[in-house]
Amino acid sequence: MEYKEFLKHFDLNGATPRNNTINVRCPCHNDKKASLSISQGRNNRIILNCHAGCNYKNILSEVGLTEEDLFNDGRTKQKNTWRDKIASRVDRPIDAVYDYKDANGKYLYSKIRFIGKHIRYAVIDKKNDSFTMEKPKGVYSLYNLPAAIRAIKKGYPVYITEGEKDVNTLKDLGFTAVTAGSVSDWRSEFAHYFTGARVVILPDNDAPGLELKDKILKSLRAFAHSIKVVITSQAEHGDVTDYLEAEGHSKEDLKKLMDEVSAVAAPWIQITERKDGSQKQSVNPGLLKACISENLSYKTVDGGYYWYCNGYYKHIDKNAVKAKISAYIPDTLTNDNLLNNVYNLMLADSDHMANEKDFNTNEKYINFKNGLYNIDTKALEPHNADILYTRQVNTEYIEGSTITEYHTFTKFIRDLCKNADGGIDWQAYKALQEVAGLAISNIYGHKTKKAVFLYSPVGNTGKSQFLGLLGHMIGQENITSIPLQNMNEDKGRFAFANAGLVRLIMNGDQSKGDVKDSSIFKSVTGGDAIKVEAKGKDIRTLVFKGLVVIACNDLPYIADDKGEHIYRRMYIVPCTHTIEEKERDPNILDKMIKELPAIANWGIEGLHRLRANNYNFTEIAAGAEVIANYRKNSDTVYSFLMDEGYIITKNPADKVSKQELLTAYNKYCQDNGRQAVGVRQFRDRIVKLTGYTIHKTRLKNILASYCEGLKLSDEFIPVNEGQAIPFE
């Protein structure tokens, strides 16, 4: 690539080459001075040398170039860069490009200034020389924000200017500065970045600049512990760049000017005069607590803290809360007694008290990293601290991101849904789509009245990877494992004690051991309240709002309840296709994690279908067959009736002799090598299946017991109605 063309990929900041060498800011580190030299050597080969030690390959990758671009020998074709394309689109030369990043350094968008002070915004993909000529909706940040956050943590002052050019001017002098971009771009939510900071506001010398200064001051008073306002240039509309460049002042002049201005202390910092004329600073715990309580969102639950950050409430321990309090206080004034005092005052604030049951009750939204997806309007809304979520989907919502044939997930999910013949069971496919959508939402799982069973009588089907994918999307901290065998009156109240905020009960390898008591399982999947008891705490009631998802190779034997309702609570998704060893990818989960926005939208599509179907999962014929066989194998009485041609009509006019039925049942069990239940259990099972108690009926002067609501196909001849006597 030609040298001149090569330089277009870097921020030259007005610099020009001298003797075929130019110094620019390195794109791979927080370069406060131009530490990257770009030279043209022998045979016109381009040489990169970062004096901070950055690898030249990383530098090339960061600006969308390759090693071949270092040569001007025809090996690479000259092409228009993103700069050329944008300048051509707007039909103006570019003067400067300012990249905006979030607090973690992630690129968000660019503000582009063209010759003539024409401003446009774009999202630029420098590696692919492409761009979108717009600013993302609802995305706001400060220019040079990551550097400011680092400076605040180290105790250095941070300077706020009106424009990006001033930020770069100060950056060249070794100061850390930020800007919102213009007088109309400051937002009050920026204030929390300056918690505990020493701030110097350098406004432009005009009415809009002074108005912006007042707005920033008002926002920062409850966060920064000292603020200075320094007007630098005395010229009309003058700024700090004019002060230094046009008016000829030095860095030392600027420092002296700022030192002469007294700082305004935070409301919680009290300053008193000593007898010798010196000043003493102290912290008023009550005022500090008031500032934190009025300006930050947090909840206290049973003596613990849930702190609102990045769109959801996260449980944090005492030390983490004290660290947040400490950020407001100068190091010279901090002590443990003071921190504990403020901590306890905040804990006693009734305005911030909540109960665990208050969280995750709003079923309207799915909480993504970049906002709240409204399930009704299908639109993304800003995060809202008034909506008490304790979890967030581990990806951003990207409208229009869809699963394609080229995604790793596409082949994975189709393989998981293949039947024994190799064809795709599209009913199972839709089912897993609905499960995924429900899992990432905040809709109560018990609305489906189901627990989901990924049933796989064979191994290596991919069901564990599917659960792993759900776990990554939801977060392992929002998942717990409670075996079915522990969902009983004896162990259930302890097992569910900490499940109030859990989204998924996920059993990745459910044991096939007997379930002797299924009472809690039925309550949890049915939305009924259960009693729970945490260690050292009182018994309380809980309605589990999440979803139960179980993976198993064998369905457990449910010993206590053979009623139809217990089987209705089990939603079977068969996974019967074994992935051949040569096709197994040990990195498949990592690959799918990179596709999360599209996978989330895939799940949302299933969620909309589930809601439209009144929270009834897609019926799976193969799953219904598994349940039918499972029920027959679990219940010898039911199996006998089905195999021997009896029909449960639930019509009291249909009657079968109890003695004949019992005799036939015992013979059936003997012939099929199955263990028969006792007479009392047989009677109880018949009563539960038919819904009628067994009565004695007099027929031809003979009193005999009959089972009502049951008949033998079309061969049974109803007896004449006689006097019915309840059978004891």
Automatic annotation (TrEMBL):
PROSITE patterns: SF3_HELICASE_1. The lineage of its organism: Bacteria, Bacillati, Bacillota, Clostridia, Lachnospirales. GO terms for molecular function: ATP binding; hydrolase activity. It comes from Lachnoanaerobaculum saburreum F0468. Residues 427-588 form the SF3 helicase domain. This is Toprim domain / phage/plasmid primase, P4 family, C-terminal domain multi-domain protein. Keywords: ATP-binding, Hydrolase, Nucleotide-binding. InterPro entries: Helicase_put_C_phage/plasmid (IPR006500), Helicase_SF3_DNA-vir (IPR014015), NrS-1_pol-like_helicase (IPR045455), ORF904-like_C (IPR051620), P-loop_NTPase (IPR027417), Phage/plasmid_primase_P4_C (IPR014818), TOPRIM_DnaG/twinkle (IPR034154). CDD domains: TOPRIM_primases (cd01029). It holds the Pfam family D5_N.
